[in-house]
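Internal tracking record. Fields below are filled automatically when a chain is submitted to the structure queue. Please do not edit lines marked as system-generated. If the sequence contains nonstandard residues, flag them in the REMARKS field before resubmitting.
Queue: standard
Priority: normal
Entity type: single polypeptide chain
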Amino acid sequence: MFSRFKSLGITFLLIVTFPLANMAHEGMWIPSTLAKLVIGDMQDAGLRLTAEEIYSINQSSLKDAIVHFGGGCTASVISEDGLILTNHHCGYGQIQSHSSVEADYLKDGFWAMDRSQELPNEGLAATFVVRIEDVTKTMLKAAGDLEGDELNQALAAQAKKLQDEAVAGTQYEAEVKPFFYGNEYYMIVTETYRDVRLVGAPPSSVGKFGGDTDNWMWPRHTGDFSLFRIYASPNNEPASYSEENVPFKADRHLAINMEGLEPGDFTMVFGFPGTTEQYLTSYAVDYVVNIENPAKIDMREASLNVIDAAMEASDKTRIQYAAKQSRISNAYKKWIGQSMGLERYDAIGTKKAHEEKFVQMARSTKGYEGMHSLMSDFEVLYTKSRDVKLARNYLIEMYYYGPEVIRFAQRFGKIAGTHEEFTDEELQVELNNLVAGVDGFYKDYDAQVDRDIFKALWPLFDAGCPEILSSATADKYLADLEKLDANVNKLYEDSFFDDKDELVDALDNKNPRKSVKAIVEDPLFQIGWQLLEAYRGGVQVGYGEYRNEEDAMMKVYLKNWMALMPLETYSPDANSTLRLTYGKMEGSEPVDGVEYQPYTTMDGIVSKYIPGDKEFDVPQKLLDLHANQDYGKYATDGELRVCFLGSNHTTGGNSGSPAIDANGNLVGLNFDRTWESTMSDIMFSEEICRNIMVDVKYVLFIVDKYAGAGHLVEEMDLIWSSKADKLQIPEEAQQEVMD
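SYSTEM-GENERATED OUTPUT FOLLOWS
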């Protein structure tokens, strides 16, 4: 299953330990809790700010420059006019949506040379955190001794009450979220801006340099950044896109550290990490390593083999599938590294050792004797829930990341299921609206590629997915796997959803009831509908029951573990809320005989250069700048640094997060982890887990010297500082400092 990466020949030899509580730089900290938990340790590590300067609701603070970007990434505000910086891969979908064969912004890059050229992006939003409130006491009081659905309903009702009170009379939104599996609760109040425009993006030969080969790897030389701007109403409030909107005036933006970092310097990453599961039991980790990841990896590898070949053969397909391929491949390679790391570092054995310690402590501590059976209860739970979890995994891979047309056809599912509620005239209007909205799908759809993905995935789905998730129509068409190629072709030929013209013709018959009948009888629609019905009918209910039971048991487990070990400091798992993690710029020695240097330079780009290669080509202008050593003010000690490593605990969602120095200035942009570090979602090791950041001075070099968009740099505050005393000095005084 790991065939695409066997040639890398990576072997893990180190043995690490993983305590349940945090190590020196482990942990994703809620900003509002820094003062009482870790600010002292952060300052001992080099931080020169107070907790109030990082997070405050009474004055401007660093948190006000941090943006939840697009719902799945992070960005930072870097000018008073709402200019924001995030990753190239975070803006990839928007860059792709504006691209065509004639205007290939993916290949050539895009730069708005004035604000009139900045491109709007439907559906893209930027969200700021207004405040974070600890509502644990109120939520736990509402929970009382309730269990199951009654507990969930009581918690939901109390959360809604708190949320409604928090946003009354404002344009804010609020969400109450559980932490530590419901032992704590925090309410996050936010403000969202929905007019976010594309300002600049480097060519993919910079923004995706190294491609899939370098993804999750070190050394890295990827300029993974893009620039957007937030727009607001004339009174600086959130507003939908309008030509009347103006650049957002930010309360706080990050200044740029032009001095650069040295190995050992303090760093922190501020952003919205998605999901970690640091406290999973050994039984859950065993499922991930031995069942879940292998199934998902096999499915994605099959899809990627098809998509990669199609993109290689056609520029049109390359543009159509660029964002899709990136979305599929990123997690695919991560899961491979995660499984390898967890296996080589014996995560299951390490977890078991902690569980045995928990049992021993529970048995020997008065008042905790009943907790000793908890671990065997976990074993029973994970055994009985295996099939529903696996079926859910297969549905996600087949329905959401497999052949697109199955999911697309379900856009018509609502009208198919409720058509009896409409008059003929109303039904025709609904159908017309649906048909009128399909252009976006077909713009980026290739029917042959979709067929080939179906052919590649179905045998894996058929063999691996538990029988509780199935489709009678799929069984009818695809029962004979020896004739799979011809049978899939017939399936698509019998459907009108794989072709826009056929879809329009099939539904343009002036008889809306007949149109609905055609939709319901379409075989590709039926497959998607039946899979979802099977999921809702058995898998979803079973999975929900399992999650409720697991959460309840994990809540008890953590509550008692923390009570038995009260002197430790515990950080909550990531859950897409604002967090801060800290460490320092440093390399590592992840395997015997391998040393990761703390940063890379422009020389490494040239050494990797392969003319015409889809992953390692380099623009001629960049080669010329290197040949002439024309780095300007963006060099550090005479060399142009590209990426650097840090010992910050990060995960998905931290993509685009600013890397910030001890004084609160921007030094880099988080975009990845080393391959062996992908295990940190489940097991963190301060010895080998490293996050990868692009140096902000390389970002500005590309913007200014390569792209000629120096007007964007002029918007920013560039700060030079004396290495002796770290006094901040404006750019106009930089020459005096250097002298």
